[in-house]
């Protein structure tokens, strides 16, 4: 594996420039170097490092912080909104979300490093959403290139799609799943054929045809239990998504539209 990082993405957020570099890694698939730049020459002033798996987890944390910020009203003029630590095997990441002149500001500080040595690294992000979307797209591209993907059947007989050390979980980003009374929930959350259809070409007609053939009572419960109109069923197929959850991580399908919850609540499953 090459010891050198390759530039793969340039990002500008509110006049702040970021360069994202990567290098392949035999253990982690790939390692990111996220650099904050300054001045016309693009001098690196701050940086953090993260493996593909850790960057995926970081994106999940950023998404949660983004939702927290959007729901925190009224906003104070200047204040700390939330602070949390993300403890990983190779590093600890401290996420400090503040408001400055009513505008969001996120400081990510990396400590207790094993991948790199030296003092603490950090970057300052002026908009969580823009940064997260760029990073998530890059993670997906590199995960497809560098992480092995295969189907594994657990002891209960449920087949799951594994990528790296994460399990594919299917959810609808608009409404919660309406079909848990018709079929085993875990089967619907992990169906490898459905994962391939969603994660691949995303042909909505093929997704719908597969669901109607494989789970013929699916929409019956939708109409009865959730009082949907037949035309509403298209929403379920249009907005099916995949979330990659760490193997063994407890999670639940959140009744709040569009989320899978990791914090401790009921209806838990195991990835």
Entry keywords:
four-stranded antiparallel beta sheet, single chain, 15 strands, alpha+beta, 271 residues
Report what the structure shows:
It is a single chain. Helix 1 (52-71) packs antiparallel against helix 2 (128-146). The longest helix is centred in the first third of the chain and has 20 residues, at 52-71. Helix content is 29%, strand content 38%. The protein has 271 residues and is α+β, with helices and mostly antiparallel strands. The model is unreliable at 263-267 (pLDDT under 50). The strands form four sheets. It has a four-stranded antiparallel beta sheet. It is built from seven helices and 15 strands.
Low-confidence stretches: 263-267
**What is the helix tally?**
7
Distance between the termini: 30 Å
Percentage of residues in strands: 35-45%
* Structure class: alpha+beta
Rg measurement, Å: 20 Å
Round the mean pLDDT to the nearest integer and report it.
84
User: Rough shape?
Assistant: globular
Give me the count of strands.
Answer: 15
For the largest beta-sheet, the strand count, sense and barrel status come to:
4 strands, antiparallel
Order of helices and strands: EEEEHEEEEHEEEHHHHHEEEE
Tell me the helix content: 25-40%
Trace the largest sheet across and list its strands: 1-2-3-4
